[in-house]
Amino acid sequence: MTARTPVLAAALATSMAAALALGGCATPTTYGPAGPRQAVGFSDYRIETGRYRVTFQGGPGAPPELVADMALRRAAEITLADGYDWFRVVDRITDRSGARRGGTSVSIGGGTGGYRSGIGVGVGTTFDLSGGPAWRQTLEILAGKGPRPEGAYDARSMAR
């Protein structure tokens, strides 16, 4: 059994190096529209006049505060683009996905057949290569003109 220990150590080292190399492949969080091939970014649609649903999907590992700020930024842009002065968030949904945990397992098995018997030992490892949790913020907003009511955001200052 001691003859196999270097082989197991080499396999574990190779697996860890591959995990570290692939960990850098996480999708960065950038501000822009979410495309068909990349989920990171914003999407929105008009529910009715002055009412919109805005979603911002962050990349793996992006802080939830950054994702929330990006959703508010997009809400401000939509508000201004349609000629409104302010918006109020009437519904907010925050989702988290990803961030699986790695693990290690050890198994031992044995068997006999005729005059022979054998014992096997196996070690398995898993790694989380996702880069961390991915947060998504969805806002439903009401936009308006004129004096800003209490609890509403000024679209001009939010867009900056």
Descriptive account of the structure:
This protein is α+β, with helices and mostly antiparallel strands and 160 residues long. It has one domain (5-24, 38-159). 26% of the residues lie in helices and 40% in strands. A five-stranded antiparallel sheet has the order 1-2-6-3-7. A two-stranded antiparallel ribbon has the order 4-5. It starts with a helix and ends with a helix.
Number of domains: 1
Number-wise, the strands total 7
**SSE sequence, one letter per element:** HEEHEEEEEH
Radius of gyration computed on alpha carbons: 25 Å
Write a concise keyword list for the protein shown above:
40% strand; 7 strands; 160 residues; alpha+beta
Secondary structure elements and their pairing?
Layout: H1 5-23, E1 41-48, E2 51-57, H2 64-81, E3 86-98, E4 103-113, E5 116-126, E6 133-144, E7 153-154, H3 155-159
Antiparallel strand pairs: 1-2, 2-6, 3-6, 3-7, 4-5
In short:
The chain is of the alpha+beta class and 160 residues long. Helices cover 26% and strands 40% of the residues. A hairpin with a 2-residue loop joins strand 4 and strand 5 (116-126).
